[in-house]
Structures are given as C-alpha cells and as structure tokens.
Amino acid sequence: MARSVIEERLRNAILDGRLPCGLALRQQELATLFGVSRMPVREALRQLEAQGLLQVVHHKGAVVAPLITGDAAETYGLRILLESEALRLSIPRLREADFDTALTIIEALEQETDFKEMGRLNRLFHMALYSQAPNQRLLRLAEQGLAEEERFLRFNLSAMGLGKLSQDDHRDLLAAVRQRDTTLAVELLTLHLQRGIDAITRYLSQGGTHD
Ligand code: NI
C-alpha cells in the first residue's frame, strides 16, 4: 500500500474523530494493520505532522493533535500575524482568475449547510487570497492555522449554534483585495479573525467540548 493511501486513511480518521485527540499512533501497529513495512507509515506520519494533525510528544511518539482549546486567543493572534503578512505579499500579485476563484467559493459557502464542507471552503477562500505570496514557508504556516480551525469547526460549529453564516466579511474582504487596497484588506482580515476569536472564546467559556 502506498504512503499516500495510508496518509489519506489516517487523515480521514483524524478529521472525523475516529482517531481521537491525544491518541498515540504506533508505527509498528499501523504497519501491521496496513500490512506494510514501517517506512511508508513513518513517511505518512511525517506528512500528517507537517499538516498540524499530529504532534510528536516526548516518550509517546506521534499523537493526534489537540483541537483549539483555552489558548484560542493565542492561536488566532498568531494567525492574524501570519495571514496579514501573506495577504500583504499576495495582493500585488493576484490575478483575475484568483478573484474569480475567491468569489466562486463565497457563493458556494452561501449555499452550504454541511459544517464539514463550510470549514473546508473557508480554508480554500482564505488560501485563494494568500496564494500569490512568494514565501512558501509562510503559506504553509498560514494553511496550518486554517486547517486547525477547520478541524475545530467540524466538531463544534453545530454546537456553537451559528447556523448559516453570513458571508459579508468575506465579500468585503474580497472587494478590498480586488481594489488592491492592502491597508483596508489587512484591517478587514484582522477584524474577521478577531470575530473568530470572540466566537470561539465565548463558546469555550460556556463549556463547549474541545476534545
Ligand atoms: Ni473566513
């Protein structure tokens, strides 16, 4: 079995909660389960770690990463820094096709009622705006933050009682980006992410589940 197949199966199991947060994944057990040597398993685990789905913990090895918890404000604070910079670098290089992609995603988000899909589309929308930033390492970090949020929303969005989310933030942000007004765009992005912090902090303080 190829490394990519193992990676895909493990990713899906983490995303839908079959492999719960904090669970240690043992290379030898997985190799036996998949009927392969340890090498492709090790590679798959490394990929999932790079995507922020696994964390290497001393003495335990690779464990399923926690969802955003009490440090939501810190998590989002870092995201504001990373994503503002990615947006700033990307704006002068974005093309018409990128604007079209972003608009198509907003329209899809307005129709979507499945929370899993909404998290994925939100990540794709943001990445479309950052996509032309030339710093690949920065883009990877920005995408990791979005993936972390996507995972949190999968488990919690319905419990947060947000229902159908308005896409006003995304539309305003896209309009500023289209005008290549970097200052306004960064300001709107910051407000948008700040709203995320507020919603998640409020939800967690009311005792929302976070594992
Ligand atoms: Ni968003």
Quick recap:
By secondary structure, this protein is mostly helical. It contains 9 helices and 3 strands.
Task: Show the helix and strand layout.
Blueprint: H1 3-15, E1 24-25, H2 27-34, H3 38-50, E2 54-57, E3 61-64, H4 72-90, H5 96-111, H6 115-130, H7 136-156, H8 168-178, H9 182-205
Antiparallel strand pairs: 1-3, 2-3
Helix pairs in contact: 1-3, 2-3, 4-7, 4-9, 5-6, 5-8, 6-7, 8-9
The structure holds nickel (II) ion (NI).
Characterize the structure shown.
- With 211 residues, this protein is mainly alpha-helical.
- The chain folds into two domains: 2-64, Winged helix-like DNA-binding domain superfamily/Winged helix DNA-binding domain (Arc Repressor Mutant, subunit A), CATH 1.10.10.10; 72-205, Up-down Bundle (Four Helix Bundle (Hemerythrin (Met), subunit A)).
- Helices cover 67% and strands 5% of the residues.
- The protein is built from nine helices and three strands; from the N terminus they run αβααββαααααα.
- It has helices spanning 3-15, 27-34, 38-50, 72-90, 96-111, 115-130, 136-156, 168-178, 182-205; strands at 24-25, 54-57, 61-64.
- The chain has a three-stranded antiparallel beta sheet.
- Helix 1 packs across helix 3 (38-50), helix 4 packs across helix 7 (136-156) and helix 5 runs antiparallel to helix 6.
- The radius of gyration is 18 Å and the shape is globular.
- The two termini are 31 Å apart.
- 31% of the residues are buried.
- The mean pLDDT is 87.
- Bound molecules: nickel (II) ion.
